[in-house]
């Protein structure tokens, strides 16, 4: 299957922009592949503060036309409880008609509308922020969470309805947004590595629309899937050394790369640098990565944990710690791949500039120019979860 030529960068965009370049008739946001979850495996330990699941899909990577480095766009129906809460805020019962022929308002909201991320129009109506728009806790870059919950639809919907009425509020609702997940397997059933998003915020438990379905062992909700190709982030076919830098579920594409290396991709020196919260509960894929190291598929692995009391806590600090080795690898032609939240990606880049400056005795400007050149040459590649 020819992969459609669209790509999200940073944050997932609305459905309309997503399929702006999709090819007619191919699998895309408007023509997704119907699938389901084949199996789920909890990767994080029971003592972890978060849950990370390995999710195998009924569609294969080949069906979707994806390889590690690409992402999969996932559309899931909204939870019935969320639909009920939205109907209540709208002052509706759900059996009213909807803009979709033959669908009740309840059905339309469940399968067609974005009920988590608020539309810009409703945010404007209520003045930009709901009750949850207060920062009360520090960010944790190792967790991959470097932005705190923004107002979601339920935070603002009652105020918006009071201001413009329920009919206008319903009209302002946007199409259900696909969520992107990095492909974390090289072949067979496509696999995703998903952090379950839950947060107690402003007196209400927030549950991520897509991650809750993907990570809920009881859910057999249908999924609609399509490829989000990112050819620049594929494992190159040459044998140049490879440095993979990730925090949290940002390690997902690199698990796929390591499987590709094990399956016969050209051998090369490869170094995984990985940051998480705790060694005992959050070191996902530990056995696989250690086995790859023992087998020589990985040449080197550096792990850092932010909650162990270690002096080096975050992956960008590990870049500083190993700066001169990293610079040696770069001089030897290494490509650096970085994956994680926006904060992780930006901290790693800053740390690399500083590390190169320190290693070569260069000014920050000169080191920055080198990293910019590496980016232009495709030797420094970052994929951000937004
Ligand atoms: C290219 C790309 C690749 C990605 N790959 C992966 C991956 O491999 N694994 C993975 O787990 N995720 C990945 N993500 C993130 C994923 O797409 C979703 O954003 C994430 O799972 C949350 O979606 P949700 O539907 O569960 O939550 P939503 O329903 O979208 O969010 C629920 C509420 O939580 C808030 N919120 C959203 N994100 C956070 C956060 N991080 N911390 C606190 N509050 C938040 C929202 O503002 C909203 O109010 C990727 C994102 C991109 C753009």
Automatic annotation (TrEMBL):
GO biological process: cysteine biosynthetic process
Species this protein is from: Rarobacter incanus
GO molecular function: flavin adenine dinucleotide binding; FMN binding; oxidoreductase activity
Cofactor(s), names only, from the UniProt record: FMN
SUPFAM superfamilies documented for this protein: Ferredoxin reductase-like, C-terminal NADP-linked domain, Riboflavin synthase domain-like
Protein name: Flavin-dependent oxidoreductase
Family annotation (PANTHER family): NADPH OXIDOREDUCTASE A, NITRIC OXIDE SYNTHASE-RELATED
Matches recorded under InterPro entries: FAD-bd_FR_type, Flavoprot_Pyr_Nucl_cyt_Rdtase, FNR_nucleotide-bd, NADPH_Cyt_P450_Rdtase_alpha, OxRdtase_FAD/NAD-bd, Riboflavin_synthase-like_b-brl
Keyword Cell wall biogenesis/degradation appears in the UniProt entry: no
Entry GO terms, CC: cytosol
Keywords from the named record: Amino-acid biosynthesis, Cysteine biosynthesis, Flavoprotein, FMN
Ranges where the FAD-binding FR-type domain occurs: 30-236
């Amino acid at each position: 299957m020819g992969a459609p030529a669209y790509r999200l960068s940073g944050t997932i965009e609305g459905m309309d922009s997503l399929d702006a370049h999709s090819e007619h008739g191919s699998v895309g946001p408007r023509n997704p592949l119907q699938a389901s979850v084949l199996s789920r495996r909890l990767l994080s330990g029971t003592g972890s503060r978060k849950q990370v699941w390995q999710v195998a899909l009924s569609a294969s990577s080949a069906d979707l036309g994806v390889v590690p480095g690409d992402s999969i766009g996932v559309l899931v129906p909204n939870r019935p409880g969320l639909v009920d809460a939205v109907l209540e805020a709208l002052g509706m019962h759900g059996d009213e008609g909807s803009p979709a022929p033959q669908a009740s308002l309840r059905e339309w909201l469940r399968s067609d509308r974005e009920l988590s991320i608020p539309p810009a129009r409703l945010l404007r109506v209520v003045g930009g922020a709901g009750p949850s728009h207060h920062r009360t806790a520090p960010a944790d870059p190792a967790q991959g969470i470097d932005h705190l919950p923004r107002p979601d639809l339920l935070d603002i919907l009652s105020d918006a309805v009071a201001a413009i009425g329920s009919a206008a509020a319903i009209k302002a609702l946007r199409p259900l947004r696909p969520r992107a997940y990095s492909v974390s397997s090289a072949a067979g059933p496509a696999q995703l590595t998903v952090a379950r998003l839950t947060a107690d915020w402003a007196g209400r438990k927030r549950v991520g629309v897509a991650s809750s379905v993907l990570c809920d062992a009881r859910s057999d909700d249908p999924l609609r899937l399509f490829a989000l190709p990112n050819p620049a982030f594929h494992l190159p076919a040459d044998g140049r050394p490879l440095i993979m830098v990730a925090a949290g579920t940002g390690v997902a594409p690199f698990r796929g790369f390591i499987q590709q290396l094990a399956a016969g991709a050209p051998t090369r020196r490869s170094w995984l640098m990985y940051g998480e919260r705790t060694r005992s509960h959050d070191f996902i894929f530990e056995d696989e990565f250690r086995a790859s190291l023992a087998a020589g598929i990985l040449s080197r692995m550096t792990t850092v944990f932010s909650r162990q009391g270690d002096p080096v806590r975050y992956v960008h600090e590990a870049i500083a710690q190993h700066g001169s080795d990293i610079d040696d690898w770069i001089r030897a032609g290494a490509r650096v791949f970085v994956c994680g939240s926006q904060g992780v990606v930006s901290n790693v880049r800053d740390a690399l500039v500083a590390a190169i400056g320190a290693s070569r005795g260069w000014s920050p400007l000169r080191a920055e120019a080198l990293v910019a050149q590496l980016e232009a040459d495709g030797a420094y590649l970052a994929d951000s979860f937004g």
